[in-house]
Design brief:
Number of helices: 4
Keywords: Acyltransferase, Transferase
Number of domains: 1
GO molecular function: acyltransferase activity, transferring groups other than amino-acyl groups
Shape: globular
Helix content: 25-40%
Number of strands: 8
Distance between the termini: 36 Å
Pfam family, one: Acetyltransf_10
CATH superfamily: Gcn5-related N-acetyltransferase (GNAT)
Radius of gyration: 14 Å
CATH class: Alpha Beta
CATH topology: Aminopeptidase
Oligomer: single chain
Protein name: Putative GNAT family N-acyltransferase
Length: 142
């Protein structure tokens, strides 16, 4: 396996890779309706792509208010720290932009992953697109 790299993506130029990954993970695997996956926030978000070599294998986005979302890694690359690299890049960019709090809506099964990165659960469990979620918060340590 080549090393994993993460870069800030361009919603227009990198749209095919961003869509390919999110469609495979959220729409095909998790049965999220396409109308819930694609929203107007994509145009204003900072997007990230994770690569193995020159092949895009993961994505995430950061909204201007510090909300992190659409964290996704293709099935064959899960468990290989791709999500860790992605989330670290998103957190670093958020902090660089002065967003000292980051929030996200996490699938319940993924909460240990986010807790490793300093997030804590804020809410009771709720359904989003039919999948159990909780709200989580990370505050930059001073």
């Amino acid at each position: 396996m080549n090393s994993i790299s993460v870069r800030v993506a361009d919603w227009q130029k990198d749209n095919a890779d961003l869509r390919r990954i999110r469609e495979k993970v959220f729409i095909a695997e998790q049965a999220v309706p396409p109308e819930l996956e694609w929203d107007t926030e994509d145009a204003q978000a900072v997007h990230f792509l994770a690569y193995e070599g020159d092949y895009a294998i993961g994505t995430a986005r950061l909204l201007p208010d510090g909300q992190i979302g659409r964290v996704s890694v293709l099935k064959d690359w899960r468990g290989l720290n791709v999500g860790d690299a992605l989330l670290a890049a998103v957190i670093a960019e958020a902090e660089r932009r002065g967003l000292h709090e980051q929030r996200l809506s996490a699938q319940v099964q993924a909460t240990p992953f986010y807790e490793r990165h300093g997030f804590r659960i804020l809410s009771e469990e709720y359904l989003d697109a039919g999948i159990p979620h909780v709200d989580m918060l990370r505050q930059q340590s001073s």
